[in-house]
Write a structure and sequence with these properties.
The chain is of the alpha+beta class. It has one domain. Strands 2-1-8-7-6-5-4-3 form an eight-stranded antiparallel sheet. It is globular, with a radius of gyration of 24 Å.
Amino acid sequence: MVWNTLQQGLAAWRQEKPAAQAPGDPTAVPGSEAPKEHFLLPRPAHRWEDSRPAHGLILERYARDLGPQARPSEDPAGRWNLDHAWFTREEARAWLPADPQSGQRVSMPTASLQRLLRFSLVDNVRGQTLPFGVAEIVRAKLEIEVVRRAGDRVFLRMTGHSLCLSDGSWHQGDNLWQPRRQDPHALEATLLGSAEFDLGSGTFRSLEWVALARRAGRAGVNGRARDAGAGRLGFYLRLAAADGNVAPAFIALYDQPWVAMPTSGRELRR
């Protein structure tokens, strides 16, 4: 029956004049003489992507399950997930010494490192997870070394280790992320990365990070109800495409002045 209906519709379409086959104006109201601009599609009052920092550091973050040899899982149920991380231009510049020279080493500023650990190194491979709270960061270290400098071009190496441990308690206020149940979970990661920074433009020309991690427990609806035991995860972070404009999953918890928050709970749910 469905096939016959499709065939009938196609036959009727072929009998129409070309003008009738042209796509209609989605903003027009049939039978109205009013100007088109009076019927423009509504734009929500609040959009998270509007807070994307201009000329900032925009990262893509991929996560996936790994097998016992730290290779991509061959399990047919194995999955991967994509998220983003945002930093302002000023935050990214603070990752380097004021006058970078070969051999210098600095630690990533606390605010930037906590943002990475709380919101990016999380187990959302199979579904939506929960972020870690500041109080749940047990160990956090990411060292940035200036490998060499060529004029305004600075080449960096990044190494680090982290451990986040949650007993399931919620430490991040009354908001839409607050879970209905307590689920203990943990994630320990070793990080390695390289990057090239342009002092002239104040931006990264390239950046790549990998992290090997061990996770345990479940959190939220992240698909670990039957797989809460210890397992391996892999993370990969890189510069996002220039036209990428998808807001990070946990942007509402960034607690930064450059993130515009909605003025009502209804807007927050959009």
